[in-house]
Write a structure and sequence with these properties.
By secondary structure, the chain is of the alpha/beta class. It is built from 46 helices and 19 strands. Helix 16 crosses helix 18 and helix 43 packs across helix 44. The longest helix has 26 residues.
Length: 996
Amino acid sequence: MEEEKSDKISPSVDDDEIPSCSKKAVQKQEDEDLVNIVTAEEYLMRKDVILLDYEKQMFLDMVHADALLVSAKGLSYERVLFNILKAYSDAGNLVLVINSSDWEEEYYKSRLEKKYIHEVANTATERERVYLEGGIQFITTRILVVDLLKQRIPVELITGIVVLRAHTIIESCQEAFALRLYRQRNKTGFIKAFSSSSEAFTIGFGHIERIMRNLFVKELFIWPRFHALVQASLKPYEAQTIELHVPLTEKMKLMQTHILDIMNYLVKEIKRINRTVDMEEITVENCVTKKFHKILQAQLDCIWHQLNSQTKLIVADLKILRSLMISTMYNDAVSSYALIRRYRTKEYALSNSGWTLLDSAEQIFKLSKDRVYNGQGEFDPEHCPKWKFLSEILKVEIPADMKRTKPDSYDPPKVLILCQDSRTCYQLKQYLTQSGERYLLYTAMREQIPVGKLGKVFEKIQAGRDLEITVAQERPLSQTKPIKSERTDLPEDSDDVNNSTQVDELTQLLTQNDMEDHLQYFQESYMLTMTQTQFDETDLTLMNDSGTGGEDNVDNSIFEPFPEMENLDITAAVAAQKQPLICLQTFKTEKEGSTVLDRVLEDINPQYVIMYHCNVTAIRQLEVYEARKRRPAKDRLKVFFLIHARTVEEQAYLTSLRREKQAFEYIIEIKSKMVIPEYQDGKTDEAFNLYKAYKHAEDSVESANAQSRKAGGQVCKQAEEVPNPKVIVDMREFRSDLPCLIHKRGIEVLPVTITIGDYILTPEICVERKSISDLIGSLNSGRLYNQCIQMQRYYAKPILLIEFDQNKPFHLQGKYMISQNTTTTNSDIMQKLQLLTLHFPKLRLIWSPSPYATAQLFEELKLGKPEPDPKHAAALGADDTGAYDDLKFNANIYDFLLKLPGVSTKNVHKLMRHGGSLKELLKKSQDELAQLLDSKENGKLLWDILHVAHLPEKDEVSGSSALLASSKQMGSHSRFRRGAAANVGSRGGSLRRFKN
């Protein structure tokens, strides 16, 4: 810690400028600072530092070395990182935190001292001032890269950089770019990286070595759940666990069997069709796990264009079947039936792989309907099996346990119910406050399921009135606290995966089948309380006598909503209210991520936790929470697990545990064989991976031979004077990977705001870069046409670069190239590209398979060419005398006006801004036109062309008479007249206004 703290930021001031009294004060302050410096071990002995034994070891490891830390999910490295940031919270240190999600940034900012946290300023000048103030700064990587390239940030004074979600740091990403720029000019600062996704490091060959190389770290610390120190920290404080195996209903068992049969059939079919493709990971077991979508994407993306249509249909159907399986297990019978009904339509039967025609599919449709309607066709849906167990826990088990363990205590119990998604939270809230029957009937009406006759239990509900009241009660709640939809489809590329929200895939599946207007009712947290102030013997007797705990009597529910607490301080409300409290909470939320569970546990301090769904991260968070409390066995949490034994739910949970364990074993094995060069941290001059000579060896030898024939003594001098090649890059292009890869090839990147093109390679070569989705959008909107006009007007060699994703096939065919939001066909795109090349003969097209290939192409295009001028490139299109702004003016009208006498590039902008329209221009006098064009001569020329009749030349007369004769011959054909009229009308419309 002494080494780390020695690198303090101090303003450079000459001693001569400081008065003698001030010198003494500065010296005294420096002495006090040296006294306050502590070692890492001394820091851990402070009273305000509360860490478990394994967390202390994590802290010491990361403080003393630049390293990558990989921890198991739920072991919360967040507290370790918080203490590291706290140790460096000082105006004399500048620590940057990059690649953090929104909820992670909010988590650390809310806990660190405000005076050391600086918000990122909007302007460059303000950012330069903020950097010099030191402290902790959470900064977006794009801003950091630009500031490093423009030297706005004092790189030598940066104490260190902390990288979160380190498993996403690939060679071409912006984070790797920022770290390379940092390491080139700062050899003493630290780099500390953290990740809790062990499985991400097992993808591909040598993945973890590449990530460590991109991070410039040499140490790797691995913290699985089976680590000896972790087990020693958590084992003595295990919570009291009660596992309840909830049996499925017979119909649910049969549905699960039939869905698995169809999945098995489709998996065999996809392997039979594609015998030459590696399909090892596509198994029935993986089909029901959370990572199935990512496994499919990694396996098939690169060969997607080679797969036949039947394979693509099977892949889509496997995803659908998994969603049906999840819905059967997690959702109620009515919601599950509503989802399955959508796939029993003629349209879907014609567009799938054929699974709906199988006997098992027919059984699935029949069983899902039988779960909602009884033998007499009455609406009588079966309850979720876990509902009954949940009621017994809340109404019987917990009161009995309270009476047995704390007979003299009058404190009300606090119960935390954890579930996977916001829909289940809403479902349980409705069940506990209203009853299952009323909730199922309401769901049927919401999902437009025909109700018809009601079963005996439902006859007690006055359907119309009660449901109206239910809807009226929920609308204000949804309006006061709207919840954003968590519906997300499978991303098209890996960057979207890295930058997506932290909601996991199972939650997406549970909510993606709902309509947007339905999702506004679902919240991620609910507070409930009891109608009784406390449990007593009479309540317990009544509940035991009723058997199902009031379940048969649909109008008698002992739970009621407690919405006031959702908007108040939970801790104060819990202390003030002397009544039982039930909190319904999801494992993750959009705002706080997985840290929400830690906060809720601290705020509520529950005695009982009910795991309605199984989640590895949440279980470990409960273990860590209990280990921090260090309570005696009788005061610890009682955790109830509700799990469907020997079902897909249990198998998915066990598979996720097994995959994580295998991932850690793989990383441990890789670490034992890993060879790390001494220069990998970039702190020594031997770090050749930070610098790349532009000239290749062959080129330098040839040039040396050529120069030696002229004058041998000048070889070295001229070789040294060869300037480093430069590429001008538009600021907006730093969202892509290409600037990073260009810089990695030894080419200097100059970030400039330019209005023409994206990359300027030479004074003559201008490149407009388009990804496939951008290309489709720009062709459809006409924006690419305007961009090509600009490039052709000011550059001799305009280039359109069409860049493919490196993880996708280099193939402009099939459904891959079309985004899901357009109805454009492949032929339309090709035709528009052909038209583009016809309109712009000088335009060249470059097809690049990946950003790596593009960087190599740029290097080859620049060989032997002069370097571009940043000032000139920025001036083009930016000033009034240059190009027009394509966002303000219509390119066609701009070109038309330039063809008129008296109009030039110097006065056309003023004419377009103040001229109005062509009709208004015709009404203006000669003096007004002269004022617009800043010249009487130009005004007269324009007025004459608009108002004076000009007689045609002789050959023009003969040409016009021939045209008139031909028009008379074709006058009987109405389609020619209609076409001519339409053509004139379209021209008139395009010239109606100068501005768009």
